[in-house]
Each structure stands twice: as structure tokens, then as C-alpha cells.
Amino acid sequence: MEPRKIAIICNYELLPERVGGMDYFFWQFDEKCKENNIQVDWFFPNQSNHGNYSELKIYSSEANVENGFLSFIEQNKPQYSHIITHFVELCTPFFKNVKQLSDAKIIAVDHNPRPLNGYSLKKKILKRVKGILFSKYIDQFIGVSDYTAREILKDFGSHLKSKTETIYNGVIIDSILARETRNTVKPSFLVASHLRESKGIQDLIEAVNTLPVQIKNEIKIAVYGDGPYKKVLEEKIRNYSLGNVFSFMGSRANLNVVFSKYDYMLQPTHMECFSLSILESLAANVPVITTNVGGNTEVIADENNGYIVEAKNIKALANSIENVFLGNKKISANTRELIANSFSLPKMVENHFELLERGNY
């Protein structure tokens, strides 16, 4: 019997030095589809054979992954049952163009974080207009957190409620080493983040600078990741003479092993949909100090498996770090259990696969 065919369009660059939760999801979802006689055509900005990508049927279009896909289906006229998008802007002419070329069901997965203070009035109006014009070409909207699902309705219109739902991201629990014991006094800290302004690491530097001198002389924070904001962060660290505190470790493909070497993760982000690094940290039994944005509060229960502070509140962030460092506050729970029960990668794969088995949307 001929395999059923689906297409997945991902505006996600494949980088061997950055292997994260979404990479594992793509690999396992492809495997799940093959087990069920479904062929997946993957469309990425670039080709790569690292990890299990050598097993995927990948088409690349470095100029524009959406235009590349449109050209492909126009030329080849494949018979897809479903077309799924990841990291692609929602409610654009792209979806209308796809519908004109294919009668496949279209599922749009929203991974996009929103600005801390919301969009400008002009952008809000533009998004609402796009919702009116183009949402009808999308059969199912998926938010990676309840926060994201709510934002889809806020952006494009409440009339989309009946075809909008949440499927949480997940991680491979067994591949992540767990920290067995946690230092309750003078714990070690890590940051695992792309280095851009919206991740708020500049707030962390400001917060550390306000700590008592004795703590500044002893606290250590390892920063894993890379990005365009690195030079700004390094300059701020030099200006505050905090070179003994912060260490830039670069991007690592083995963060699943790295997390377990630390006691707490710091994530002072200004915007987030649903953070895979938070899930991975908790799966490593490493609590998280983070901000009250996006889906963070859907996984971090304050004083249970981490601490929640207001985004951009330097004083609150400094206070939380100081109390944890001195042992005045501590997380005693095994943070791995929540992830195993609610945010595992197999559950994420199963929930996404179930979308393909539905009848009418």
C-alpha cells in the first residue's frame, strides 16, 4: 500500500552545535509517522545530517523556506493529507497560497513569543486584519502553552477558539542526567539561552551587580549559548568588574548532560512561549529562577520547583538569587517528577500524531 504523505515546513535552522528539544521532537515524530506508513517531507532552511537528520527526507531552501515549499508543490503537485508549519508566522498570504495549490488539512503550530508589553496598536490592528483575511485557510491552530493559545485568539480573533488548542512541548527524560544532590548554601548557577536582548541576561548582570560584595566574590554563573547580544553582555560585565562571576561557555550540543552539573538555572527572560530549556533543567532535577512571562508559570510553581519573579524587576531578581545563594530559600522537591508525568517527549509526539488521525476539523 502506498504510504500516506504529509509535509512539515519548519523555519528552523539545523545546527549541529545546537541540538535541543525540537530536534529530538522532529526525529521522533518522523519515526512515529514511518511506523504508521506515513511519509514526511520536511522543509527546512538548510540541509544537515547531524543526529537523526540523515534519516529524514529534507528539502531545503536557504532563501525562504515558505517560498521554497510553494515552488515545490507547484512543480511536483504532491498529494499531502496534512501540511504542518512550525516557526512560521501565522495568518499570512502563505496559507492562502498553499490552499490554492493543495487540498491538504493545514495545521499551524505557534512557537512565537509575544513582547512583554504587547504589540503596538498598529500591529494589533494588522494582526486582526490578517486573522480576518487568512485564518480561514488554517484548519487547526496549536499553541505550545495555554498562554500561546490565548495569544492566538487575542491576535487573530476569538472566532478561532473552536479550532485552537494546546499541545505542550516535551523533553526526553531518559536522555537527561539528573542531579542527585543540591547544594543549599552557595549553590552553582547556569544560564542556557540564546544570547539576545529579549532573554534578559542584561537584567541578571544588573541584579548580580547589586548583590553584597561578599556574594559577588563567591557566586559563579555559567552562561551556555551564543548570539548577537554577546558583545553587549560582555561589555556590561567588564564595566561592572564581574568577570569572576560570569563564564561564557558557548553553545553545547550536550546540554542534557550539562544541566546536572549545576544547582539552579537562571532564566530572566522578557518573552517566552514555552521554554524547552526550563523543561530540560527541571528534568535534570535543577530548579529554575525565572520570570512571569509566557508559559513559564504553567510549569514553574513558585517555591515548589523554582521561583517566579516579575520580568525586568532587577531588585526582585537580585533578592531571589541572594536568598537562594545564602540558603535562606531552597527547593527541596525532586523537579524531575513533574516533567516525567506531564511534559515528556513521547507524550508530545503522541499528541501531535493524533492530529493526523482526526477526521474533520
What would the keywords be for this entry?
7-stranded parallel β-sheet; globular; alpha/beta; about 35% helix; about 15% strand; 14 helices
Q: What secondary-structure arrangement, pairings included, does this model have?
A:
Layout: E1 4-10, H1 21-35, E2 38-44, E3 57-60, H2 65-76, E4 82-86, H3 93-101, E5 105-110, H4 121-134, E6 140-143, H5 146-156, E7 164-166, E8 189-192, H6 201-209, H7 213-218, E9 221-224, H8 230-239, E10 246-250, H9 255-258, E11 264-267, H10 276-283, E12 288-291, H11 296-299, E13 306-309, H12 314-326, H13 336-342, H14 345-357
Parallel strand pairs: 1-2, 1-4, 2-3, 4-5, 5-6, 6-7, 8-9, 8-11, 9-10, 11-12, 12-13
Helix pairs in contact: 1-14, 2-3, 6-12, 10-13
Give the helix level as a range of percent: 25-40%
Q: How many separate helices?
A: 14
Low-confidence stretches: none
Helix/sheet category = alpha/beta
Q: What fraction strand?
A: 15-25%
User: How does the overall form come out from the CA principal axes?
Assistant: globular
Largest sheet: 7 strands, parallel
The first-to-last residue Cα distance is: 26 Å
Multimerization state: single chain
Order of helices and strands: EHEEHEHEHEHEEHHEHEHEHEHEHHH
- With strands numbered from the N-terminus, the spatial order across the biggest sheet is 3-2-1-4-5-6-7
